[in-house]
Amino acid sequence: MRYIRYFCIAIFAVALIAVAMANRNMVSLQVLPGEISSLFAVNPSVELPLFIVILGSILAGLLVGFVWEWIREYGERAEAAKQAREMRRLEREIARLKAEKHEGKDEVLALLDEAS
């Protein structure tokens, strides 16, 4: 199974390298549209190879998706934590009730009662 994973990673790496080699041309990336940049009298732009723009966009999309899912699953994580706290509380209560039940009994008989 490990070799299959390495093979898939290698294929993915070759595909990324092929995309990078095919898109080496320089492109001008403007941060603001022309209408908005004229209002602020700034025109920030940068020259980058196209593959950096493509791979950077993919990375930015992945990060936005991960953050979106983390925020979306907050309610489920909070409910799971609440249930875990409740389970620990109930386990402590069960242990306390068992201790009260066997209070004043012979230790051997109490162990036998707990086992059954």
Automatic annotation (TrEMBL):
Coiled coil spans: 80-114
UniProt entry keywords in alphabetical sequence: Cell membrane, Coiled coil, Membrane, Transmembrane, Transmembrane helix
Residue stretches making up the Lipopolysaccharide assembly protein A domain: 40-100
Transmembrane segments: 46-68
One Pfam family of this chain: LapA_dom
GO cellular component terms, A-Z: plasma membrane
InterPro entries on file: LapA_dom
Protein name: LapA family protein
Organism: Sulfitobacter albidus
